[in-house]
Hints:
Layout: H1 3-13, H2 18-25, H3 29-36, H4 47-53, H5 58-61, H6 70-87, H7 89-102, H8 107-121, H9 129-144, H10 149-165, H11 169-177, H12 187-196, H13 200-231, H14 235-251, H15 256-269, H16 273-285, H17 312-325, H18 336-342
Amino acid sequence: MMISEVIRHYRKKENLTQEQVADYLNVSTPAVNKWENGVSYPDITLLPPLARVLKIDVNTLLAFNEELTDTEVKKLTKEVGETASKEGIKKAFEKGNDLIKQYPGCDELILMISEVLRIYLLGLQIDEKEKYERKIIAWLEIVAAGNKEKTASMAKIDLSAIYREKKEYEKAQEILDKIPEVDVDKKIQQAVLFESMGKTDEAYGIYEDKLRKNGHETFAVLSLIIRLLYKEKKFREAEEYIERAKKIAEVFDLGAYHKYELDLWHSIERQDSERTIEAIINMVNEASTMDDSIKSKLYSHMKFDVTNNWTKDRYKDLVKRVLRKRKNIDFVKDDPRIKSLLE
């Protein structure tokens, strides 16, 4: 149950009216009504007396013992992302904040909402950006202090990245040092065990998951090396690594979009207008291939969440929106081909 449902359920169980609860807490009756309808939430200072009047503890009031399923977490997080796309970052933060108040004990939800909203903040020129960043940091710190080691470690990685971007390197390192080194991976042994038990599909699923993750990780690491080479003006070496990264994208069926993204990097570094324009056109045309691994035979035994059912046009709109905000391609934005493409 959400906190609104908890309040309503236990108020009725104790045969109390909204007016009686309001009188006890010295608040207005409409305030209690809003709590029960999920329009607003009680102030944190009111939680202990509210729990007492309902004859429950604060943990029960906040539904700390209730866990959301992975599917529910993904669904709620997706709603936050869609709100950001359609109604803007302010509304998305309001929705995220409300969900976190409803499920304050679900570290996975807090983490995913923080990560999604952080993505929408990147590269955007928006009002009160620092205020939103502080909110994300506060949420991540809650998760990082939690007792779920994997989720806490992921939150610490995000926090370290945020402080690195802020050039607060000592703080970033301090947080990174708190993440435990875990070298044991039982997944392969689990797959072999499934195979021995005759659970072939489950074994395939684990092997394919490892394969896909390794492909994405290898591509990501090569991309980071390419970025370093650009910083050192080692363009020839960067080209060699780009070709290797493209082969990885092909071998692991990651999608053509990722290859054209590498082409864009290189053409921008070279300030090559024609190749930059060509890469942008290819990225937009192949936008829908960014999720090609989901459809690949290599990963046919994996179960993907394909509830979004995005059309090709929606993928194109996403890429166009990102490209319109990129400052490092300003030198080609006046070209008629790019103007018409990004309209």
